[in-house]
Amino acid sequence: MDVKIHKQKLSLESKNQIEFMDITDDVQKVISDSGIREGIVTVFAPHTTMGIAVNQNEPMLVQDFMRILYKLAPMDDRYSHDLFELRRGSKSDGRSNGHSHCKSFLLGVGQTIPIEKGKMLLNERQSILAIEFDGSRKRDVIIHVMGI
Question: Structural domains in the chain?
Answer without folding.
Answer: 4-77+95-147 (2.60.120.460)
